């Protein structure tokens, strides 16, 4: 059975496009991001930034390790904190880029510029608004103009969920709230020794096997020595074999499920169904040399008790 594998990583591409649009946009041009300051003449007492919001959202608290480079990070829209959703490629990449832009962009040259807080605001439609709350003192500009001091400047970056692609074209939405919630739940699951063993076995299957694109008509190479290769049926069979051999206490009813020309695994743990997809969890892709490579980040939606997130993530997760 063939796995309809992702052939492009649209979320990262979209983020890069948005980032580059902001970085390269000339002065006075819209860049998909607000917060550009404009110098004013010294005869003007107070002038707000052209597109920046002037009031920050209230601080929800920064205790418990909710920091990025010693900067507090607030999360709204989901019932989790920043420390709960860390360790995910999407979240980590976004805050890395936001920090890079703010710390090296125009605003960073202001007198006593400081990033005071980041805000991740997850929306019900799956989009994400990332805000940077910053402050700076009155800063000289050209001639007799200056940037007025701003103690509470907010820059916003809105990220819209995109459709990930399968071999047959666009499939389901990669919703930012689903990704973050799934990462938080996976981090919590791994505190259970039995589920942590399940996770490590799932990870071992993803790492030990490369997706054989050759079997779906895409010519690829593999690293040497050649690893295990296969498609979704093979990933599922390997996962079932290793889970069964491990004899993890409380785990039962380990079975393969098929649908939409795909295969994955479910098991029972403490009366609940756990959904596992070793093929998609791996997220391996083809590099510029045509070699199959592994993504160091794994998709948290592929080990979950949440049937809605698991099914909505891809139509391949609807059983036959």
Q: Bin the strand percentage.
A: 25-35%
Count of extended strands: 18
In percent, how helical is the residue content? 25-40%
Helix and strand succession?
HEEEHHEEEEEEEHHEEHEEEHEEEH
Question: Ranges with pLDDT <50 over ≥5 residues?
Answer: 1-63
The structural class is alpha+beta
Write out key terms for the chains shown.
4-stranded antiparallel sheet, 28% helix, 5-stranded mixed sheet, elongated, 320 residues, alpha+beta
Can you describe what's shown?
There is one protein chain. The protein is built from 8 helices and 18 strands. Helix 5 runs antiparallel to helix 6. The two termini are 13 Å apart. The radius of gyration is 23 Å and the shape is elongated. 28% of the residues lie in helices and 27% in strands. A 5-stranded mixed sheet has the order 2-3-4-5-8, with helices on one face. The chain has 2 domains: 154 residues, no CATH class; 126 residues, no CATH class. With 320 residues, it is of the alpha+beta class. A hairpin with a 2-residue loop joins strand 14 and strand 15.
Structural topology:
Blueprint (H helix, E strand, L loop, with lengths): L9 H15 L15 E2 L25 E2 L2 E6 L5 H4 L3 H16 L9 E9 L5 E9 L2 E2 L4 E3 L2 E10 L3 E4 L2 E5 L2 H14 L3 H16 E3 L16 E3 L1 H15 L4 E9 L2 E8 L2 E5 L1 H5 L2 E2 L5 E2 L9 E2 L2 H6 L8
Parallel strand pairs: 3-4, 11-12
Antiparallel strand pairs: 1-7, 2-3, 4-5, 5-8, 6-7, 9-10, 13-14, 14-15, 15-18, 16-17
Helix pairs in contact: 1-3, 5-6
């Amino acid at each position: 059975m063939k796995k309809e594998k992702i052939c492009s990583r649209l979320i990262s591409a979209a983020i890069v496009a948005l980032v580059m649009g902001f970085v390269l946009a000339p002065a006075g041009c819209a860049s998909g991001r607000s917060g550009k300051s404009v110098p004013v003449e010294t005869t003007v007492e107070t002038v707000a930034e052209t597109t920046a919001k002037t009031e920050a959202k209230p601080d929800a608290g920064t205790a418990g390790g909710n920091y990025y480079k010693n900067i507090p990070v607030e999360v709204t829209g989901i019932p989790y904190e920043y420390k709960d959703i860390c360790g995910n490629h999407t979240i980590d990449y976004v805050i890395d880029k936001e920090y890079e832009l703010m710390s090296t962009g125009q605003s960073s040259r202001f007198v006593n510029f400081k990033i005071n807080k980041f805000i991740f605001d997850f929306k019900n439609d799956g989009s994400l608004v990332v805000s940077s709350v910053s402050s700076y003192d009155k800063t000289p500009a050209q001639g007799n103009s200056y940037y007025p001091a701003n103690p509470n400047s907010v820059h916003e970056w809105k990220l819209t969920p995109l459709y990930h692609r399968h071999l047959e074209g666009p499939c389901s939405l990669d919703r930012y709230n689903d990704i973050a919630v799934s990462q938080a739940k996976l981090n919590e699951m791994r505190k259970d020794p039995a589920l942590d063993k399940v996770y490590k076995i799932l990870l071992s299957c993803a790492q030990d096997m490369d997706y054989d694109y050759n079997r779906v008509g895409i010519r690829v190479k593999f690293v040497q020595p050649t690893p295990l290769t296969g498609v979704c049926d093979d990933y599922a069979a390997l996962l079932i074999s290793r889970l069964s051999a491990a004899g993890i206490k409380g785990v039962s009813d380990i079975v393969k499920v098929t649908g939409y020309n795909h295969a994955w695994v479910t098991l029972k743990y403490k009366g609940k169904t756990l959904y596992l997809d070793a093929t998609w969890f791996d997220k391996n892709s083809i590099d510029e040399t045509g070699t199959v490579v592994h993504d160091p980040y794994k998709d948290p939606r592929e080990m979950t008790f949440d049937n809605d997130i698991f099914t909505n993530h891809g139509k391949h997760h609807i059983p036959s």
